């Protein structure tokens, strides 16, 4: 009777476990064979040795726990609004930009357009041609990433001395972060436009909007931006390309003080109209809030958490907690999505902006399930939005306790991107983004979805491996 177990196996209904591509599993199902699919994928090519070394690092688990704790406990209070010359020490000819370091000769169209506009705005040139020549020559001009100054900037992210900045504080970890004021959509500086209407708007923001917001914020006291983010996720925003509820909640917080400001009633009315009509106004507040959170998690030896994702229109760059300020870059991909008017894919520039700090902090594309209406702006469908958030849990360290997704039974958003998990699974972070025109001066051409290049993460894992004892 020794063959009884064998006879049992031969007469039992067959069942198959599969791993990898689903083609084999689908073929078996077509034959009515029960199939269990195992969610396994090979690591990204060429990373096996480095990945094994990082996985064996005895510091990793505790380091990531500390990084995640800092990320999710960071505060973000708006405490002031001041010119960049005061808070960042920028002087004539000094400009900040989005993404990793960049020189003029490698700058994309929208980045060049933003810098040309900033030159005109600051009175350093009288014509676009004069501005471009001065920038190309580089005399008396300096370009640095916003991230090197504790700041973030959407799209081109160009900051010049006269621009007014939001000032946010994280008292829990003694951090400060900055971001310029949001201009709205369409033909605006951050999308590379620099026409007369763009410069006129910037001058109004400097002369009227900035000083009014300063009065209102100082009178209203610190505004808890983290609390607004938590609430906006309950109201259909995801914090990157949809900020409608966040903008209106922020306006509600400061409106009494804004109305009481020492300024002509016509200026106050225009400021209220401008903020209330600009659904993206809050983006420039949740970006520095996420910067504070990721900044708090930076510089922890052994941690594999991503602390920066940023794009300059040419390169995509990431930074990782365990490797400090080192950038890992690759060519920026071009977003796919929906276009404005007659624009099409050929008009779009590769990915640009510091606004991927929202995904790095656990909102934006990672919270798409909280904002299914976002697909009408960036493309895709509602099931895609739900799948995206579900997939991002695979590459993150945990769930954000304050940022929750109602449709997922108030599960916390996936937060704390782990380069190890990205490399092990091949799943890349999902980013919601606007699309700038590839030609300087065009402005916004659409909005869509994009992923970082793989090599940012493979390079980071190899650098982490080199830090292991």
SSE layout:
Layout: H1 4-11, E1 16-19, H2 23-30, E2 35-38, H3 48-55, H4 60-73, E3 77-83, H5 84-87, E4 94-97, H6 109-121, H7 128-137, E5 142-145, E6 151-152, E7 164-170, E8 175-180, H8 196-220, E9 223-224, H9 225-232, H10 244-259, H11 265-277, H12 283-296, E10 306-312, E11 315-320, E12 328-331, E13 336-339, E14 352-353, H13 357-360, H14 375-378, H15 382-392, E15 396-405, E16 411-417, H16 419-425, E17 431-436, E18 444-450, H17 454-467
Parallel strand pairs: 1-2, 4-5, 6-8
Antiparallel strand pairs: 3-7, 3-9, 7-8, 10-11, 10-14, 11-12, 13-18, 15-16, 17-18
Helix pairs in contact: 3-17, 4-12, 6-7, 6-8, 8-10, 9-10, 10-11, 16-17
Q: How would you describe this protein?
A:
By secondary structure, this protein is of the alpha+beta class. The chain has three domains: about 35 residues, no CATH class; about 200 residues, v583 fold (Alpha-Beta Complex); about 210 residues, Enterococcus faecalis V583 fold. About 40% of the residues lie in helices and about 20% in strands. The protein is built from 17 helices and 18 strands. The strands form six sheets. A five-stranded mixed sheet has the order 6-8-7-3-9. Helix 9 packs across helix 10. The longest helix has 25 residues. The chain is globular. The N and C termini lie far apart (about 55 Å). About 0% of the residues have low confidence.
């Amino acid at each position: 009777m020794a063959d009884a177990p064998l006879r049992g196996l031969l007469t039992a209904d067959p069942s198959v476990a599969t791993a990898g591509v689903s083609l084999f599993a689908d073929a078996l199902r077509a034959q009515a064979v029960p199939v269990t699919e195992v969610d396994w994928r090979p690591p990204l090519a060429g990373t096996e040795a480095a990945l094994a070394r990082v996985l064996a690092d005895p510091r990793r688990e505790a380091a990531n726990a500390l990084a995640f704790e800092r990320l999710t406990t960071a505060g973000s209070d708006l405490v002031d609004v001041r010119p960049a010359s005061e808070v960042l020490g920028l002087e004539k000819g000094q400009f900040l930009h989005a993404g990793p370091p960049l020189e003029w000769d490698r700058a994309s169209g929208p980045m060049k357009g933003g810098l040309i506009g900033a030159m005109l705005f600051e009175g350093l040139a009288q014509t676009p041609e004069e501005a471009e020549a001065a920038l190309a020559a580089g005399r008396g001009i300096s370009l640095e990433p916003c991230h090197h100054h504790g700041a973030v900037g959407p799209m081109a992210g160009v900051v010049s001395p006269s621009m007014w900045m939001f000032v946010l504080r994280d008292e829990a970890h003694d951090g400060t972060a900055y971001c310029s004021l949001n201009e709205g959509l369409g033909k605006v500086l951050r999308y590379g436009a620099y026409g007369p209407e763009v410069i006129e708007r910037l001058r109004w923001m400097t002369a009227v909007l900035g000083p009014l917001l300063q009065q209102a914020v100082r009178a209203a006291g610190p505004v808890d931006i983290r609390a607004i983010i938590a609430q906006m996720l309950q109201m259909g925003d995801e914090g990157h390309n949809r900020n409608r509820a966040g903008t209106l909640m922020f306006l509600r917080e400061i409106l009494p003080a804004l109305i009481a400001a020492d300024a002509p009633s016509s200026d106050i009315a225009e400021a209220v109209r401008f903020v209330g009509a600009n659904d993206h106004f809050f983006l420039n507040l949740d970006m520095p809030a996420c910067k504070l959170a990721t900044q708090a998690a930076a510089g922890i030896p052994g941690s594999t958490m991503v602390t920066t994702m940023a794009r300059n229109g040419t390169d995509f760059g990431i930074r990782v907690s365990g490797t400090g300020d080192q950038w890992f870059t690759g060519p920026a991909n071009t977003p796919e999505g929906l276009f404005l008017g007659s624009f099409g894919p050929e008009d779009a520039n590769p990915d640009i902006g510091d606004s991927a700090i929202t995904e790095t902090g656990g909102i934006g594309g990672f919270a798409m399930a909280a904002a299914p209406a976002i697909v009408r702006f960036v493309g895709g469908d509602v099931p895609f939005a739900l799948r995206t958030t579900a997939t991002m849990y695979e590459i993150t360290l945990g769930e954000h306790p304050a940022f929750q997704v109602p449709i997922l039974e108030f599960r916390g958003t996936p937060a704390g991107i782990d380069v190890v998990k990205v490399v092990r699974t091949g799943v890349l972070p999902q980013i919601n983004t606007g699309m700038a025109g590839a030609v300087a001066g065009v402005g916004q051409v659409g909005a869509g979805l994009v992923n970082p290049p793989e090599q940012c993460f493979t390079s980071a894992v190899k650098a982490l491996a080199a830090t292991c004892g």
